[in-house]
Write a structure and sequence with these properties.
With about 400 residues, the chain is of the alpha/beta class. About 45% of the residues lie in helices and about 15% in strands. Bound molecules: (2S)-2-hydroxybutanedioic acid. The site of (2S)-2-hydroxybutanedioic acid has 6 residues, from loops.
């Protein structure tokens, strides 16, 4: 039956981790996948999370099924984190949050919902965007088009190009926007630029789909949610948010994400939610318990929440310091042209390295980066910073 099945290439990001794991060199560094590692090179288990984990272990609760749309304490807390606790839109019952299998699951369920509601719409994604966006939306039958986003020569946002392309889209087009810490470029919009984009989305009748996988990783929980807050305050009545706790709670493998759909009224929201639940039931039926219980346990306990915010702040500050350290070490090794890395936000930097240079980093130094030149700055540490800088300088 499978005789004609073709071999397809490995995933450009997760496939790198497989190659990295198989590499025997002890100097190897994985700058491929977007994971934050601490100073000792480990994925941190946050103290606030450990505390809830201990409580859960003591209670040893039965593992019944969660509701199709997830743990209510989790979805409520998620909605408040996205919109702020006193959002009028939330008060009107227009925003409904569903627990999903990671941020990717939120993208997929959101994509399926929109394909049903807007069967002839296209989706526009930034050029470049997260490698998997095209695949997720393509898989549910969307035609995916690009909008200009990055100016490779300036190593930053091409805002004029972005506005021009968005303005040329047909009304009704879904526009995927990264709320903060743009993946893969690290180039974000300023607050004033967000205001212009939101005004344009409204004028042109475009449908916003926000992807927020890094809330709190650039400037802060509320600051990084600016795009969502501006949309909520705008005359735009419908939009969708896919969000994730993989990074902000360091819970990657727990697959803790959420899909939030904003409707025109509480009644519309109920109808839309019935569709979301039907889509999930026909896919994975209902989400898993543990990760959501951890997040809800932290967010709904004021002391643990404060502790989490502090730990998140430490991760954020350390990434800023790593960016500065990398720029300084690169300059020390004779490569002063990488100053832009310090201006980029979040886990990633579009380093400007070519595919050939990325291959040399892997073959000669055991340093793994995405073929596009994306590096995960959050995988650096005092132990590998100089080694990486020296290698990058050598291939540049
Ligand atoms: C990344 O971009 O590296 C992360 O979002 C992990 C993933 O699933 O690709």
């Amino acid at each position: 039956f499978f005789a004609r099945v073709e071999l397809v290439p490995g995933d450009p990001i997760l496939g790198l981790t497989e190659a990295y794991n198989a590499d025997a060199r002890d100097t190897k560094v994985n700058l491929g996948v977007g994971i934050y590692y601490d100073e000792s090179g480990r994925i941190p288990v946050l103290r606030a999370v450990q505390q809830v984990e201990r409580q859960l272990a003591e209670q040893s609760k039965p593992r019944g099924y969660l509701p199709i749309d997830g743990l209510p304490d989790y979805t409520r807390a998620t909605r408040d984190l996205l919109f702020g606790a006193r959002s009028p839109l939330v008060g009107e019952g227009r925003a409904v949050t569903t627990q999903t299998i990671g941020g990717s699951g939120a993208l997929r369920v959101g994509a399926e919902l929109l394909k049903k509601a807007l069967p002839f719409a296209r989706i526009a994604i930034s050029n470049p965007s997260w490698e998997n966006h095209r695949a997720v939306f393509g898989a549910v039958g969307f035609e995916v088009v690009d909008y200009t986003y990055f100016d490779a020569a300036a190593h930053g946002l091409d805002f004029d190009g972005m506005l021009a392309d968005l303005a040329a889209l047909e009304p009704g087009t879904v526009v995927l926007l990264h709320a903060c810490c743009h993946n893969p470029t690290g180039a974000d919009l300023t607050p004033a630029q967000w205001e212009r984009v939101v005004a344009l989305l409204h004028e042109r009748g475009l449908f916003p789909f926000i992807d927020m996988a890094y809330q709190g990783f650039d400037r802060g929980i509320d600051e990084d949610a600016l795009a969502i807050r501006l949309l909520a305050d705008s005359p735009i009545r419908n939009f969708v948010v896919a969000s994730s706790y993989s990074k902000s709670f360091s819970l990657y493998g727990e697959r803790v994400g959420a899909l939030t759909v904003v409707s025109d009224s509480a009644d519309e929201a109920r109808r839309v939610q019935s569709q979301v639940k039907r889509l999930i039931r026909a896919n994975y039926s209902s989400p898993s318990t543990h990760g959501a219980a951890l997040v809800a346990g932290v967010l709904n306990d004021p002391a643990l929440r404060a502790q989490w915010e502090e730990e998140l702040g430490q991760m954020r500050e350390r990434i800023h310091a790593l960016r500065a350290g990398l720029v300084e070490r690169l300059a020390a090794h004779g490569a002063p042209q990488f100053g832009f890395i310090q201006r980029q936000a979040g886990m990633f930097s579009y380093s400007g390295l070519s595919r050939g240079q990325v291959e040399r980093l892997r073959d000669e130094f055991g340093i793994y980066a995405v073929g596009t030149g994306r590096i995960c700055v959050a995988a650096l540490s005092a132990g590998n910073l100089d080694y990486v800088a020296k290698a990058v300088a050598a291939v540049s």
